[in-house]
Specification:
10-stranded antiparallel sheet; 49% strand; mainly beta; Immunoglobulin-like; two-stranded antiparallel sheet
Protein backbone atom coordinates (compact mmCIF):
# COMPACT_ATOMS: atom_id res chain seq x y z
CA UNK A 1 0.00 0.00 0.00
CA UNK A 2 1.12 3.51 -0.74
CA UNK A 3 1.83 5.73 2.24
CA UNK A 4 0.39 9.25 2.06
CA UNK A 5 1.24 12.25 4.24
CA UNK A 6 -1.42 14.50 5.69
CA UNK A 7 -1.50 17.10 8.41
CA UNK A 8 -3.61 17.82 11.46
CA UNK A 9 -4.51 21.34 12.54
CA UNK A 10 -5.47 22.73 15.92
CA UNK A 11 -7.64 25.69 16.84
CA UNK A 12 -6.94 26.66 20.46
CA UNK A 13 -9.66 28.41 22.47
CA UNK A 14 -12.16 28.77 19.62
CA UNK A 15 -14.48 31.75 19.83
CA UNK A 16 -18.07 30.80 20.61
CA UNK A 17 -21.14 32.00 22.44
CA UNK A 18 -20.52 30.74 26.00
CA UNK A 19 -23.35 29.48 28.17
CA UNK A 20 -23.00 29.22 31.96
CA UNK A 21 -22.82 25.73 33.43
CA UNK A 22 -21.52 24.03 30.32
CA UNK A 23 -18.00 22.62 29.94
CA UNK A 24 -15.39 24.98 28.50
CA UNK A 25 -14.61 24.27 24.85
CA UNK A 26 -10.80 24.15 24.89
CA UNK A 27 -9.71 23.28 21.36
CA UNK A 28 -10.71 21.65 18.09
CA UNK A 29 -8.45 19.36 16.08
CA UNK A 30 -9.04 18.87 12.36
CA UNK A 31 -7.40 15.62 11.25
CA UNK A 32 -7.77 13.59 8.06
CA UNK A 33 -9.71 10.84 9.87
CA UNK A 34 -11.66 12.77 12.51
CA UNK A 35 -12.56 16.09 14.09
CA UNK A 36 -11.76 16.12 17.82
CA UNK A 37 -13.23 18.60 20.31
CA UNK A 38 -11.64 18.86 23.77
CA UNK A 39 -13.49 20.14 26.84
CA UNK A 40 -12.73 20.96 30.46
CA UNK A 41 -15.36 20.99 33.19
CA UNK A 42 -15.28 21.85 36.87
CA UNK A 43 -18.17 20.83 39.05
CA UNK A 44 -19.92 23.27 41.35
CA UNK A 45 -22.22 23.24 44.35
CA UNK A 46 -25.43 23.28 42.29
CA UNK A 47 -25.60 19.51 42.73
CA UNK A 48 -24.70 17.12 45.56
CA UNK A 49 -21.02 16.18 45.20
CA UNK A 50 -20.95 17.98 41.85
CA UNK A 51 -23.57 15.80 40.18
CA UNK A 52 -22.89 13.79 37.05
CA UNK A 53 -22.27 14.19 33.31
CA UNK A 54 -22.67 12.17 30.14
CA UNK A 55 -22.99 12.85 26.44
CA UNK A 56 -25.79 11.82 24.10
CA UNK A 57 -24.84 9.41 21.31
CA UNK A 58 -26.81 11.65 18.89
CA UNK A 59 -24.44 14.62 19.47
CA UNK A 60 -23.28 16.21 16.21
CA UNK A 61 -21.46 19.15 14.66
CA UNK A 62 -23.47 21.21 12.16
CA UNK A 63 -22.05 23.57 9.54
CA UNK A 64 -24.13 26.72 9.72
CA UNK A 65 -23.70 27.50 6.02
CA UNK A 66 -25.15 24.23 4.70
CA UNK A 67 -26.74 22.65 7.80
CA UNK A 68 -24.65 19.51 7.04
CA UNK A 69 -24.21 17.33 10.14
CA UNK A 70 -21.15 15.36 11.27
CA UNK A 71 -21.92 12.55 13.71
CA UNK A 72 -20.24 11.66 16.98
CA UNK A 73 -18.13 8.52 16.51
CA UNK A 74 -16.35 8.21 19.86
CA UNK A 75 -16.05 9.81 23.28
CA UNK A 76 -13.04 9.70 25.63
CA UNK A 77 -13.28 10.24 29.41
CA UNK A 78 -17.02 10.92 29.34
CA UNK A 79 -19.63 8.16 29.12
CA UNK A 80 -22.24 8.00 26.40
CA UNK A 81 -25.84 8.03 27.71
CA UNK A 82 -27.40 6.29 29.48
CA UNK A 83 -24.12 5.71 31.40
CA UNK A 84 -23.06 8.55 33.74
CA UNK A 85 -19.84 9.85 35.28
CA UNK A 86 -20.51 10.74 38.94
CA UNK A 87 -18.25 13.31 40.58
CA UNK A 88 -16.87 12.77 44.08
CA UNK A 89 -16.72 16.41 45.20
CA UNK A 90 -17.86 19.87 44.12
CA UNK A 91 -14.24 20.68 43.18
CA UNK A 92 -13.64 17.83 40.70
CA UNK A 93 -12.38 18.50 37.18
CA UNK A 94 -13.09 16.44 34.10
CA UNK A 95 -11.30 16.72 30.79
CA UNK A 96 -12.92 14.87 27.91
CA UNK A 97 -12.82 14.61 24.13
CA UNK A 98 -15.49 14.02 21.51
CA UNK A 99 -14.58 12.61 18.10
CA UNK A 100 -16.71 13.36 15.05
CA UNK A 101 -16.59 12.50 11.37
CA UNK A 102 -13.81 14.49 9.66
CA UNK A 103 -14.50 18.07 8.62
CA UNK A 104 -12.22 19.91 6.19
CA UNK A 105 -10.60 22.94 7.81
CA UNK A 106 -11.90 26.16 6.31
CA UNK A 107 -13.28 29.50 7.47
CA UNK A 108 -16.71 28.59 8.81
CA UNK A 109 -19.22 28.83 11.61
CA UNK A 110 -20.30 25.60 13.32
CA UNK A 111 -22.63 24.48 16.08
CA UNK A 112 -21.97 21.52 18.37
CA UNK A 113 -25.32 20.10 19.43
CA UNK A 114 -26.07 17.42 22.00
CA UNK A 115 -29.84 17.84 21.78
CA UNK A 116 -31.73 20.35 19.65
CA UNK A 117 -34.30 20.94 22.41
CA UNK A 118 -31.53 22.95 24.13
CA UNK A 119 -32.60 22.86 27.75
CA UNK A 120 -30.18 24.01 30.46
CA UNK A 121 -28.56 20.57 30.81
CA UNK A 122 -27.58 19.93 27.18
CA UNK A 123 -24.04 20.60 26.00
CA UNK A 124 -24.97 22.82 23.04
CA UNK A 125 -22.53 25.35 21.60
CA UNK A 126 -23.60 27.83 18.95
CA UNK A 127 -21.69 30.06 16.56
CA UNK A 128 -18.26 28.50 17.00
CA UNK A 129 -16.09 30.58 14.72
CA UNK A 130 -13.37 28.70 12.82
CA UNK A 131 -10.72 30.77 11.05
CA UNK A 132 -8.13 28.89 9.03
CA UNK A 133 -5.57 31.61 9.80
CA UNK A 134 -5.82 30.75 13.54
CA UNK A 135 -5.04 27.07 12.97
CA UNK A 136 -1.64 25.68 13.79
CA UNK A 137 -0.14 22.56 12.27
CA UNK A 138 0.33 20.08 15.09
CA UNK A 139 1.79 16.93 13.56
CA UNK A 140 2.51 15.11 10.39
CA UNK A 141 -0.03 12.35 10.05
CA UNK A 142 0.84 9.17 8.17
CA UNK A 143 -1.81 6.93 6.69
CA UNK A 144 -0.77 3.52 5.45
Amino acid sequence: MKKTESVSYLINEPHYKATAGRPALLRIEFAPDYTKVDFGYQTNDDYFKGGWVRIAKETFIRLQSSQRKFSLVRAEHIPIAPEQHHFSTIKDWLYFSLYFQPIALQDMMIDLIEDETDDETNFNYYHIEIKREHAIQIMPYSMV
